């Protein structure tokens, strides 16, 4: 892919089809930006009605250009685009950037036209950006290409940015210019030494599986920060299961990005806060942070922010405190935060930083400077810059104050030292660095599969499909789960009160009685569950009461052994229409949709990811036996998740599965699936 993208990102020649002499027209602005940026290859304007544009010889069509063309930027009316595409194929153009709008975004007719273009260029080996896009920029001095109609002139830098919104792309160019970041699709930047961090604004995923595969690999090398729009729930799945109700679009995309090692941020502001640090700083080795300041208030703000974000402001060792007292005024506080008081000048900052940056108990430093009128802010900035050059840990700064502080900020930015206006921003950036460190250190794990009774599982699914049903009967769900090695609490189905009493006698008292009907989802709320029944008369009376209350002609009864002890957990499968099969784990029982203490992963997953799921819920201490409670067998839960994930991968016709609860005991012998539902996808 990298080689095929070179025609778009690193073209040797560019044709602008639709180049125009008219001021303010897109065709004129793109050609002007290419000339203004100093593109290092030849530029060929294409316009059948002009001999020259921007003082450059013009050609009637792509076919009339005598020299090779790597990239064609297309800015013509949408009805002419297919003809230009045919010219590009005939001319063996390798890359297209289609600026023209009016395709998929306007409806079905436009989508068909876009699909027709895609189907023509793929067999020809042409890569395309667009249609309806802003263009492409590469500030590499060897290329110097600005093939966009953006008003902001991009500066060279260490950030690669891709946006699925042209308007936001323009805003981001302007903001990056203002804060001194600079602007230089994911795989093409993987081994580009000039790109330190990749930023993305995403609205959709064309191929989520490929994105996951590429991003997993790239984020082991360099960070990817993403703003993903769209957090609405996929309500169509909510009616059948807890898993479907919880697997909204926001959870799905959060899961995809997390598994890929991508850091999802909530806003453009947060993206730039983190990008400023990622573009210039090394990663911390841990989360222990030192704070150096000349003002107490901002230091308290920084400390509070660090604690909220999972960073530790640790007390400095006695030796470090003694060394600091030797170089600072007696009024200084040296425990951490190190408050040098308002009189601290560049010499104080240099001396303190020289000690703190070598302290093995610190993983990162936040340096705060509130600019008093008597202290030279530029000299303080230079002291910080000198310390940062030889530091083995990240140093983030916060300069507060108008006039002198502004001069210090400019000095820090020119030197590539991240600088922020408020302490909370610096803390958020440091937390982002630490989060990425933890992501990179995650072991990859292995994909495990288990021997299963595939014949039994397939027979169940064929029978359901042959009967024209989508929802599995309880006994069918049990056979399916049993085929995949998931342990089930002993149970029997009964058509009436007498059969239920006989089933209870066979299983052994006490028992649980459940009402079963196709549209009966939340049994407890409907009064369709009776616990701890200890005799045949109790079972018969419970059946009769349930029949009177529910008034369902298709009502049957499930009689199940009363399983005690253990922790209630939920395991589930849901299929996102874009991202595919997702696996869910959380605390189960009747409060699952109230507490929302669940985690998702997109399948397939590794054994490490399964264990991360178990440990990733807020209620994990309960599974570890908090406050003397029963401890759940973690290895069993990991294996159960892997087995359920294997089922979803091997049988894509399964749309949803809800195991709620799976009662997890201290060992697998005392762990059982107590209730489960399954549904196949509609034909």
Fold and architecture overview:
- The chain starts with a helix and ends with a strand.
- It folds into 5 domains: 1-143, Rossmann fold (3-Layer(aba) Sandwich), CATH 3.40.50; 150-279, Succinyl-CoA synthetase domains (Rossmann fold); 282-441, Succinyl-CoA synthetase domains (Rossmann fold, 3-Layer(aba) Sandwich), CATH 3.40.50; 454-561, ATP-grasp fold, A domain (Dna Ligase, domain 1), CATH 3.30.1490; 567-680, ATP-grasp fold, B domain (D-amino Acid Aminotransferase, Chain A, domain 1, 2-Layer Sandwich).
- Helix content is 39%, strand content 19%.
- Mean pLDDT is 88; it is low at 232-239.
- With 683 residues, the protein is an alpha/beta fold.
- Helix 7 packs parallel to helix 9 and helix 17 (454-466) runs antiparallel to helix 18 (474-483).
- Strands 23, 24, 25, 26, 27 and 28 form a 6-stranded antiparallel beta sheet that branches. It has a 5-stranded parallel beta sheet with strand order 2-1-5-6-7, with helices on both faces.
- The longest helix has 19 residues, at 423-441.
